[in-house]
Design brief:
Elements (H helix, E strand, L loop, with lengths): L3 E5 L2 H6 L12 H6 L5 E10 L2 E11 L7 E5 L4 E2 L7 H14 L2 E6 L31 H4 L2
Parallel strand pairs: 4-6
Antiparallel strand pairs: 1-2, 2-3, 3-4, 3-5
Length: 146
């Protein structure tokens, strides 16, 4: 069984079944369109196994100048069905293949609002740690400002 990656040309149709998947607001068409622009084109992917969609991701194709390298940029990771979570690594491999076959120079997967294990065993992925700070705003002001 081989996973197939496909690009959806209609975000409204792509979004119809999104509620079945564990997903972040950062892959919804509303979000992706809100951060798009002339050099930031929305792109919507489905990952299919035996003609059924098992995972989804949406982001941007970024190309700042006509001859500049293209980047696939995602604010969050791949959304998945509970029963298909174990296919995430295979989906990432398909995303790499798609990028290589379509002249992308890079894939950026951010982890905003992503509740799945994010690290990848695929050698082509490089990990960049990001610091996050959580502040308990219910604490006293003196405690917060320490």
């Amino acid at each position: 069984m081989d996973i197939i990656i496909s690009v959806s040309l209609n975000p409204d149709i792509w979004e119809k079944e999104l509620s079945k998947f564990h997903h972040s607001i950062f892959i919804t068409p509303v979000w992706v369109k809100s951060v798009s622009g002339p050099s930031r084109i929305p792109v919507f992917f489905d990952f299919k196994l035996e003609s059924k969609t098992i995972a989804k991701i949406a982001g941007l194709t970024i190309q700042k100048r006509k001859l500049a390298p293209k980047i696939l940029f995602f604010y969050s990771g791949i959304s998945y069905l509970d029963s298909k979570k174990h296919f995430i690594e295979e989906c990432k491999k398909k995303l790499v293949e798609y990028a290589e076959n379509n002249n992308y120079s890079r894939i950026v997967l951010r982890s905003y609002d992503y509740n799945n294990y994010f690290l990848s065993k695929i050698k082509k992925f490089k990990i960049h740690n990001r610091c996050e700070y959580k502040i308990d705003l219910t604490a006293d002001k003196e405690v917060i400002l320490k």
